[in-house]
Amino acid sequence: MTEDSILLPHKLTLNERKSLTLNGVTEVVSFDDESVVLKTAMGILTVHGQGLQLKNLSLDGGQVAVDGSVAALIYEEPRPERSWLGRLFR
Fold first, then answer.
1. How many whole angstroms separate alpha carbon 25 and alpha carbon 60?
2. Which domains can be identified in the chain, with CATH numbers?
3. How far apart are CA 47 and CA 61, in angstroms?
4. Which of 2, 4, 68, 89 could bridge across to 52 with cysteines, CB 3.0–4.6 Å?
């Protein structure tokens, strides 16, 4: 993990599966109306659903709000970084 991600506390609030607010977001990796992929202080978070929209985005403070019908929240553990040689032979 980077120093930035350790400094940002991670908090997730889901209201009636329609409104999601997050703190501790360091990067929006990708988004469309069915999925939002975020890099957080606790790893990569993928939000699956329908009609998803980014409503509030403040990466300086690490805050993101997502509206829509949320079906799943999936975390991926951060992978240790490997050298270019290690990535070549994986």
1. 9
2. 3-88 (2.60.40.2000)
3. 20
4. 68
